[in-house]
Amino acid sequence: METKSVTYREVLRWNDDQALDFIERRRWPNGPICPKCGTTREPYTIRRKVKETSKNKISRLYRCKDCKKDFTATVGTIFEGSHIPLSTWLAAIFDIVQSKKGISAHQLHRRHGITYKSALFMAHRIRLAMGNGSFEKLSGVVEADVTYVGGKTRRGHPIVHERTRDEIEMGWRKPSITPGQPHPRTKKTVVLGAVERGGRVRTQVVKTESAAEVRPILAENVDLPNTHLMTDKAGAYRRIKDFGRHDVINHEIEYVRGDIHTQTIEGYWSLLKRGIVGTFHHVSPHRLPMYLNEFEYRWNERHVSDGQRFETLLGQMQGRLRWNFRQDSQG
Ligand SMILES: [Zn+2]
Known about the structure:
Mean pLDDT: 77
Number of strands: 10
Distance between the termini: 33 Å
Number of helices: 11
Largest sheet: 5 strands, mixed
Oligomer: single chain
Bound molecules: zinc ion
CATH topology of the largest domain: Nucleotidyltransferase, domain 5
């Protein structure tokens, strides 16, 4: 990896060929690897020069020496099958990575001269990549809490609601997955979060705040036996026995007792909610997990420079939207 990371100005100046160079270097630091069979035997390049294809404007085609299949650096990445130029993709990724509170599809659309649909599509794919980060469990002092996203803003607009007009026009169909659904009684979406003091955060949409729901998710994301957990007095955590240590703060009585508090996770919730209200205006429940990814990512990478964040994210571009998204409708 280069010692000096790229800057926004550099990225903005890149043409599609340079953007592809960068993607290839990030994906294959030691030379191309066939995504079909995994061989690292030097593939032969069919067209080393720029090739105009119907999809990404520019792509460099390789043919694997072992399985004889053709591939490009964008196969199996969030760029695959997109008509949006790679230089625009990278500029938009940098935009998202360096903004503190998030950037809306509308801003991307205006800034890069692409359609709103394309911008929306791109923003969602980028958020998907942001969710592919580290899978190492949290440990140490961890605060866990549940929050409800939704309800009304002060002006009376719902923050989380069924579908926006844009989505209806675009033909979004409601996915059958339940995690994104609002809570049946409150119509709010329940989000469980855990944050290490001075460290990383994990958040996830849950159906309810019950122990049966919360326990397995915490166990999956937090190294419970090696964790000093701090929560409010919600019943869900009391029934979980395998924490290293568990302290409860009763918010009816106090908010801080010595170093026992849940202020870190609460600070995170307010950041998240301000971001959703301030930048995105509307987040429908089934898209909330994507926004959670983005905020989580920004928090976890808060100590590194924008350029480094950009490069790290480019290293985790594998993975595509699994949802029922109208791929053919983007620009
Ligand atoms: Zn191969």
